[in-house]
Amino acid sequence: MTTAGTPDETTVTPGGRTADASVETIQREMTAFARRARASAGRMHPELSLVSYTLLGHLEERDGCRATDLAAHYALDKSTVSRQVSALERTGLVERRVDPDDHRVQVLHLTEAGRRILAQVTESRRAAVRERLADWSEEDLARFSAYLERYNAWPDAPADGDRDRDPGPGHVRWTGTH
């Protein structure tokens, strides 16, 4: 262990792996997970990419927001979000409304069609995940969900894009290239 209490590359984990080997396995499996999610998005709804699905979900959770808020939340370039939002507007899934508190600002909201499509795709995704995890015990499911929440609780990168900052004690820096 390092002085901060995190495993170093020579620490052997309970499964008999070194910390580096575990991190490499996690990184490889997360990449496979992301590829599978992107590939399955088209099967869930042909016109709805994984990015579009994610943006619609965020708009639903927040009951609308500005495009700049979407870009900041997902650390995406504003032009990327603009293209995605334009496509969602053209398909009638998203609409712009003037912010009642500041008439200079436009807020993105789901249309009824957007809500319907999002609900359909969400249920299809849930069914696919349920099927994949059908033989997992409740304990395994609880542990896996807790680990995912813990992993995703990592703070976002600083706004200035300084990804080389020191993450502080207790964190492993990702350097894999897979």
From TrEMBL:
Q: Which domain of life is it from?
A: Bacteria
Query: Could you tell me which residue ranges the HTH marR-type domain spans?
Result: 23-153
Q: Which GO MF terms are attached to this record?
A: DNA-binding transcription factor activity
Family annotation (InterPro entries): ArsR-like_HTH, HTH_MarR-typ, MarR/SlyA-like, WH-like_DNA-bd_sf, WH_DNA-bd_sf
Where composition is biased (Polar residues), the residues are 1-13
Record's Gene3D superfamilies? Winged helix-like DNA-binding domain superfamily/Winged helix DNA-binding domain (1.10.10.10)
Q: Which GO terms describe its biological process?
A: response to stress
Spans annotated as Disordered: 1-23, 155-178
Q: What's this protein's name?
A: MarR family winged helix-turn-helix transcriptional regulator
Q: Which organism is it from?
A: Streptomyces rochei
Give the source lineage, highest ranks first. Bacteria, Bacillati, Actinomycetota, Actinomycetes, Kitasatosporales
